[in-house]
Amino acid sequence: MAGEKSAPKIVGLTPDRRQSFYGRDIVSVKQFSRDDLTYIFGVADEMRSIVKRVGATDLLKGYVLANLFYEPSTRTSSSFIAAMQRLGGSVIPIHGVQYSSVSKGESLPDTIRTLECYADVIVLRHPEVGASEVAARYASKPVISAGDGVGEHPTQGLLDIYTIYTELGTIDGLHVAMVGDLKNGRTVHSLARLLCLYDTKMTFVSPEILRLPPALKEELIQAGRPIAETARVEDVIETVDVLYVTRVQKERFADLREYEAVKGYYEITPALMERAKERMALMHPLPRVGEIHYDVDDDPRAAYFRQVENGLYIRMALLAAVLGKV
Ligand code: CP
Questions:
Q1: Pocket residues for ligand 1 (CB within 6 Å)?
Q2: Looking at the predicted structure, is the pLDDT value of residue 287 above 50?
Q3: Do 48 and 116 sit in the same domain of this protein?
Q4: Which residue, of 2, 165, 213, 224, has the fewest CB within 10 Å?
Q5: Which of 156, 163, 314 for mutating ligand 1's site (highest number of atoms within 8 Å of CB)?
Q6: Is residue 172 part of a domain?
Q7: Which residue of 75, 80, 283, 304 sits with most ligand 1 atoms within 8 Å of its CB, as the best mutation to test the pocket?
Q8: How many domains does the chain have?
Q9: How far is the CA of 7 from the centre of ligand 1 (A)?
Q10: CB under 8 Å to 137, separation ≥6 — which residues?
């Protein structure tokens, strides 16, 4: 472990919150309580304030992050790098298996055991569901999932629900519709679980072949959520507070003819947005490939680039929390 843990505190961790974050892996949103979210939102607010006022802090000076990506990424990878650098730490970036010894056949456990000899925290994106949990079992340092196949994307879920809170000032009482590839969209899987911590109504909008996985549906029902499903975004556009649109994930289809049949199913246009509430948030985890027209971007309700920015603050908060600095 690098350095002494004597950097200035930003927010005092209560013993309960310390248990939730300090030294912990972040592999699923199922591990979080509503109090955990309230806490991490507060730290993210402070990180935003630091970045806006002075750009950076030395809270994690001397600490090293290993940023290990077995799948492509723009936002998650670069925001974790930016988060670590703005906290004064440094990063070992490992992008693409072709540039690491994974290309020689090295296993995930050996890769993780190696990286934790150099780093204090490991961020992992991997195409297999459960890979982050496997990595966490082998690592003595905290492992943070950056998305595991079609499983979960917990840090995206956290930044998404933080964005809902910052855009609309509340989460309780909202109607959230999730649109698109609900079967393969790991961001949806994380966000839907987090929304169960609040008094929210959820509607799932997708063509039949892209419906939520049955096991997740069952989980939401067990959590007391009625599952409302439709194929038509027109059914919800006038009532939703949050329209969370996702890309149809071409890379998850075994049969590309099935992808071709559904890839252009939803297009959010200015004409459609005219029917939406005056106060609502249009969100997307990005990248988008046609689901939201570019001429919607100037609509004040289009929150997706503010959502991207919030990813920086949430990831700064998480890095500081797992390393015991807040
Ligand atoms: N939202 C998201 O995970 O984007 P990237 O794939 O670019 O990291």
A1: 73-77, 147, 153, 156, 285-287
A2: yes
A3: yes
A4: 224
A5: 156
A6: yes
A7: 75
A8: 2
A9: 31
A10: none
Q: What is the pLDDT of residues 288-303, one digit of tens each?
A: 999 999 999 999 999 9
Return d(Cα 195, Cα 316) in angstroms, integer.
22
- Mean pLDDT (the chain, rounded): 93
CATH classification of the domain holding 195: 3.40.50.1370
Which atom of ligand 1 has the smallest separation from the CA of 153? 3
For residues 142 and 244, membership in a common domain is answered with no
Nearest ligand 1 atom to alpha carbon 311: 1
Please report the sign of the dihedral spanned by the C-alpha atoms of residue 163, residue 168, residue 172, residue 176: negative
* Average pLDDT, integer, range 80-109: 90
Stated as kind and residue range, the H or E segment containing 181 is none
Instruction: Let me know whether 291 and 315 are in one domain.
Output: no
DSSP line for 32-50: --HHHHHHHHHHHHHHHHH
Distances (CA, A) of 161 to 209, 256, 257, 316: 26, 32, 34, 16
Structural domain containing residue 276: 154-307
Q: How far apart are CA 105 and CA 103, in angstroms?
A: 5
Q: Largest Cα–Cα distance in the chain?
A: 57
Q: Report yes or no on whether pTM surpasses 0.90.
A: yes
Q: Whose CA is nearest to atom 6 of ligand 1?
A: 73
In a domain, 124, yes or no: yes
CA–CA separation, 81 and 53 (whole Å): 20
CA of 153 to the centre of ligand 1 (A): 9
